[in-house]
Specification:
Elements (H helix, E strand, L loop, with lengths): L2 H9 L25 H9 L17 E2 L5 E5 L4 H6 L6 H12 L8 E4 L13 H18 L3 E5 L1 H8 L5 H4 L4 E3 L4 E6 L2 H6 L4 H13 L14 H8 L4
Parallel strand pairs: 2-3, 2-4, 4-6
Antiparallel strand pairs: 1-3, 5-6
Helix pairs in contact: 4-10
Length: about 240
């Protein structure tokens, strides 16, 4: 509308039509905002979505580098984890630390989490409703970290992440993909299982080396054998 037209309408005391909210027609729905680490951790600590909150000492959020290339995901906290608020801190945690060192990673260089943030009573398997309520927290952690490779340790973590009921043995030795983001995922034994079945530690080392080959090769052995130092480190965690 030009100036003369507007003046003419004003003379006739006719109000010119105006869009009440010019931005409304051009606005587009905002993308859902991801929580930051602090708000996500606060939500986990305050969560009462399932019955596990009534028996926990504290939630077990996760630990390690938030820019990690390798993310390790287990099942659920145990007694020691529930007491200390950190995943994999008992004998199984000591073995996991040794396993990571055997392929050139310090524990602080990876991110470690579980599919559940609270300990199930008597360390029983997670129930489906507990997994359904808790795993959105894990999914958000994965989105925030954006790891290059996920290492799923144990049957329950592998089944959730891959949406399958196949046996652990059938899932090992393959590169799987996590969700529509297509993050490479490798399956191996849970450290607690390896403490009970140390004969399978060599198989687990093969799995870890497989995961390592998907990352930058620095710090990893590439000759196809288990280095003596790695064998000694893993052996010390058997008892």
């Amino acid at each position: 509308m030009n100036y003369s037209h507007r003046a003419y309408l004003n003379t006739l005391e006719i109000l010119a039509w105006q869009q009440r909210n010019p931005r409304a027609a051009d606005s587009t729905p905002a993308c859902p905002r991801l929580p930051d680490w602090a708000s996500l951790q606060s939500r986990v600590a305050a969560c009462t979505a399932c019955g596990l909150h009534s028996s926990r000492t504290q939630t077990v959020f996760g630990t390690g580098s938030r820019t990690a290339s390798l993310m390790v995901i287990g099942e659920a906290p145990g007694f020691h984890e529930d007491q200390q608020g950190e995943p994999f801190v008992g004998r199984a945690g000591q073995l996991l630390t040794a396993m990571l060192k055997s392929i050139g990673f310090e524990r602080s260089q990876v991110y470690i989490a579980n599919i559940l943030k609270c300990r199930p009573p008597n360390n029983r398997d997670p129930q489906p409703e507990e997994v359904a309520q808790c795993t959105p927290f894990l999914d958000q952690q994965i989105i925030l970290i954006q790891p290059d490779v996920i290492l799923a340790v144990g049957r329950i973590a592998s089944h959730y992440l891959l949406k399958t009921r196949s046996s652990l043995e059938s899932l090992r030795g393959k590169v799987h993909s996590y969700s529509d983001r297509q993050i490479p995922l490798i399956v191996t034994y849970h450290p607690a299982y390896l403490l009970r079945n140390p004969i399978d530690k060599k198989k687990a080392y093969v799995d870890l080396r497989f995961a390592r080959t998907l990352l930058q090769p620095s710090g990893a052995s590439t000759n196809g054998t288990i280095p003596l130092s790695a064998q000694q480190t893993l052996s010390r965690t058997q008892t």
